[in-house]
Design goal:
With 339 residues, the protein is of the alpha+beta class. Helices cover 22% and strands 28% of the residues. It folds into 2 domains: 6-152, Aminotransferase class 4, branched-chain amino acid transferase, N-terminal domain (D-amino Acid Aminotransferase, Chain A, domain 1), CATH 3.30.470; 163-324, D-amino Acid Aminotransferase, Chain A, domain 2 (Alpha-Beta Barrel), CATH 3.20.10.10. The protein binds pyridoxal-5'-phosphate (PLP).
Length: 339
């Protein structure tokens, strides 16, 4: 194994030694297999390739000061993957199989789990897809569930520093009655064009608006949006938003800090009155937003005027990371120690 510079790891693919796999055939899940190959061999007519029958999860294993490995709210990821499977008619992965496979993938690659103190972690990517053949539009009869892992640093190269987002109105990420609320690959395919265009135009990511009326804030690319206004933590409520486990946790922590939590429609114009805004998700935990520019009318919303993240965002970020790394008491029972 090459020496890994834990402090400068990007957020990206990193080859490790093993991944784990399991097949669903004849109506049941088979044995868990270990593989050292980065490739999968699947049928040319597999439904994942043609009709987008695919869902994934994203979670992290953290190593604490005590050397222990911690998983954060894995039960929520397992449950969300079952919801995703249900939404696009795939075989559901039972929670005990999900847990067995993520633990196995982490343990087999334990040497890649970053030591405490670098802000790095081991990213876990479970994925489920239709592997059986169909040419007519139908769900597959066979499914494959796999888990691979890799060490990662912060999602945005800025780390916990303000990012700039572009508000887009000429693309939708997901439709109100579509698949935005489940974690399926197709949502990402639909967001790539706007996301890459924003990067070319100098932004970290895009802010999508709710598709039907284009009046309300939906999601910040692959992350949920939240705002702080006076004593409130505000986050959009919409049928096309993916329910983020990070956001769910931040809402609880905000409440613990004595903030009022508002989950409601958030109009774009409200941006003018917010004290702090941010994007949240497993990858970046919190990305403070320093500036938003509306691509259509050029309107600029400025935050973090001193170039730094806001006070409450910082407090929430530190609190959540402290629980994840085991520096602080896990009062909500969110952490599972696996060694
Ligand atoms: C995964 C994801 C998130 C973040 O969810 P977490 O559970 O916090 O990682 C937010 N939005 C979208 C679209 C996602 O796919």
């Amino acid at each position: 194994m090459q020496d890994i510079n834990w402090g400068t790891l990007p957020f990206g693919y990193f080859k490790t030694d093993y991944n784990v796999r399991c097949y669903y055939r004849n109506g049941k899940w088979g044995e868990v297999e270990t593989s050292s190959s980065e490739f999968v061999s699947i049928h040319i007519a597999a439904t994942c390739l043609h009709y987008g029958q695919e869902a994934f999860e994203g979670m992290k294993a953290y190593r604490g000061k005590d050397g222990k490995i911690r998983l954060f709210r894995w039960q929520e990821n397992a449950k969300r993957m079952r919801k995703s499977a249900e939404g696009i008619l795939m075989a559901e992965v039972p929670d005990d199989l999900f847990f067995e496979m993520i633990v196995k993938a982490v343990k087999l690659n334990e040497k890649y789990l970053p030591p405490y103190g670098h802000g790095a972690s081991l990213y876990i990517r479970p994925l489920l897809f239709g592997s059986g053949p169909q040419v007519g539009v139908k769900p597959a009869d066979e499914y494959m569930f796999m888990v691979f892992v890799g060490p990662v640093g912060p999602y945005f190269k800025e780390g916990f520093n303000p990012v700039t987002l572009q508000i887009v109105r000429d693309f939708d990420r997901a439709a109100p009655l579509g698949t935005g609320h489940i974690k399926v690959g197709g949502n990402y395919a639909g967001s790539l064009f706007a996301g890459e265009r924003a990067k070319k135009e100098g932004f970290s990511s895009v802010l999508f608006l709710e598709a039907k009326e284009k009046k309300y804030i939906d999601e910040a690319g692959p992350a949920n949006f939240f705002a702080i206004k006076e004593n409130s933590y505000i986050t959009p409520k919409s049928s096309s938003i993916l329910p983020s486990i990070t956001n769910m946790s931040l809402m609880q922590l905000a409440e613990d800090l004595g903030l009022k939590v508002e989950r409601r429609k958030v109009a774009v114009e409200e941006l003018d009155g917010f004290d702090e805004v941010g994007a949240c998700g497993t990858a970046a935990i919190i990305s403070p937003i320093g500036k938003l520019v509306d691509r259509e009318n050029g309107k600029v919303y400025q935050f973090c005027k001193d170039g730094k993240a806001g006070k409450i965002s910082t407090k929430l970020y530190e609190k959540l990371q402290a629980i994840q790394y085991g520096d602080e008491a896990d009062t909500h029972n969110w952490v599972t120690i696996i060694n």
